[in-house]
Design a protein that fits this description.
Elements lengths: L1 E9 L9 E6 L4 E7 L6 H16 L9 H21 L8 E9 L2 E7 L3 E6 L2 E4 L6 H7 L30 E6 L5 E5 L1 H4 L4 H8 L4 H14 L6 E9 L1 H5 L14
Antiparallel strand pairs: 1-10, 2-3, 3-4, 4-5, 5-8, 6-7, 6-9, 9-10
Helix pairs in contact: 1-2
């Protein structure tokens, strides 16, 4: 089995700069989406630093040598560097980034994340959010203060409780599980899920062509006047035979939401 992927990013229709960044390394089984913290100092610098530090840590490693420990260590290095930059270059203002990372090796997947950038898995036609947002509203849902269906529209929906570069200690959540043939992963910044619901994402991913699906998701967010930067990476786990017949997916109809 091997993985194909498709990544794209857009500044959206409101923001003047794109504070998102991504990394796509299919031969090493690593994909990353980082979202610089909007409204803070140098969010674009923060997200790119996270990406560059991860790349530096794995660039010359084989797939066998890349582990979740290596990735976590790179995030901690980013955390320390961003804290130092905050004190020396940004007058104490926070320069931070959320991040979600997918590592695939040895027939297992590993999702690592900090903040509210998300990792989804489509398996046998059913979409599930594997990551769990580090956010104020998610804590409120867990505590029974608000309902899950009201979280996205809550006034505190943009308040995150964890990010790279914010605290001296960085806690990274990790979810690992067995990989299955046909699995499709979606990594995205919150600019996508603010505009496109999970049900809509699930419907777009059904035909199986990740390039067409990625373009449809980006289009859907932009025609809804994407208020934030939008970044998404789709990763499909498939066999050699699937790869040879990839073009057969191109005739499948992709639903478009407006």
């Amino acid at each position: 089995m091997f993985q194909s992927s498709h990544a794209q990013t857009h500044r959206g229709t409101v923001r003047k700069i794109n504070e998102d960044a991504f990394l796509e390394r299919p031969t090493q089984g690593v994909w990353v989406v980082a979202d610089g913290m909007g409204g803070h100092a140098a969010g674009d610098v923060a997200s790119q630093l996270v990406i560059d530090t991860i790349l530096k840590s794995i660039e010359y490693l084989s797939l066998d040598e890349i582990t979740t420990t290596v990735i976590v260590q790179s995030l901690k290095e980013s955390n320390a560097m961003l804290q130092q930059m905050s004190n020396t270059q940004f007058s104490g203002k926070v320069a931070g980034s959320t991040v979600v990372i997918l590592l695939i090796k040895d027939d297992y997947y590993h999702l690592l994340w900090v903040g509210d950038s998300r990792g989804y898995l489509l398996r046998e036609g059913v979409l599930q959010q594997v990551t769990k947002d580090h956010s104020q509203v998610n804590d409120m849902v867990d505590e029974g203060v608000i309902l899950a269906k009201d979280a996205e529209s809550h006034p505190l929906a943009n308040v995150i409780t964890r990010a790279v570069g914010v605290d001296s200690e960085l806690n990274v959540d990790i979810k690992s599980d067995k990989l299955e043939l046909g699995d499709v992963f979606l990594l995205c910044s919150d600019g996508l899920n603010k505009e496109v619901s999970d049900k809509e994402i699930e419907k777009v991913l059904q035909p199986g062509n990740i390039i067409d699906a990625g373009m449809a998701l980006m289009h859907a967010s932009l025609v809804r006047n994407a208020r934030d930067n939008v970044t998404c990476i789709l990763i499909k786990n498939k066999s050699d035979i699937d790869n040879m017949s990839e073009d057969s997916d191109s005739d499948a109809t992709i639903p478009l939401f407006v």
